[in-house]
Write a structure and sequence with these properties.
This protein has 169 residues and is mostly helical. It has seven helices and no strands. The chain has one domain (2-22, 32-168): Arp2/3 complex 21 kDa subunit ARPC3.
């Protein structure tokens, strides 16, 4: 129960940070997608199901506030959390190469799918790639290691707390 409250607070705090403070430090009009960092990090640390649930919650929060219709962000983030958590449950979680690499592929995949869903009728893929996908991916990747380290420390602390209470019973 504590884990759900903590990760919910992290997702909500990230949403507030992304929509307020990070808007003021945009580079070339691009803001890093820190929600993707939280979802990828959590999926690596906790696996596919919990990554998908965290992704769905983070995406649903963005859907409610930014989209005309609900479900696109929730679906994309849930699929991202599931895919990033599926094959990497058994990998060494102390490595920082894994979250950076997964963030790269998750951001490119997310942006391309988002483009095809929202902008296919406009026919401006190269402009979208050059001015949106590439800068946002690079900006988000630069923040991957600090966010992953924070999520890693938080996960370790929660696991110690859960282990302490599991040994009681």
């Amino acid at each position: 129960m504590l884990r759900a409250v903590v990760i919910g607070s992290v997702i909500y705090g990230n949403f507030l940070l992304q929509t307020t403070l990070l808007r003021h430090i945009a580079i070339l009009g691009v803001v890093p997608m820190t929600a993707m960092l939280v979802v990828v990090s959590y999926a690596i640390l906790r696996g596919d199901v919990e990554g998908a649930i965290a992704g769905f919650c983070a995406g649903l929060l963005q859907d409610v506030f930014f989209m005309e219709y609900i479900g696109l962000y929730a679906l994309l983030f849930a699929v991202t959390g599931f895919i990033c958590g599926k094959p990497f449950r058994d990998f060494f979680t102390d490595s920082f190469i894994l979250p950076v690499t997964l963030t790269l592929f998750a951001m490119i995949g997310y942006e391309v799918v988002f483009y095809f869903i929202n902008f296919t009728m406009r026919g401006r893929l190269m402009d979208y790639f050059r001015y949106i996908i590439l800068p946002e991916t690079i900006y988000t990747m630069l923040l991957a290691i600090p966010v992953y380290r924070l999520m890693f420390a938080l996960n370790k602390r929660l696991e110690r707390h859960e282990k302490k209470y599991r040994s009681i019973f």
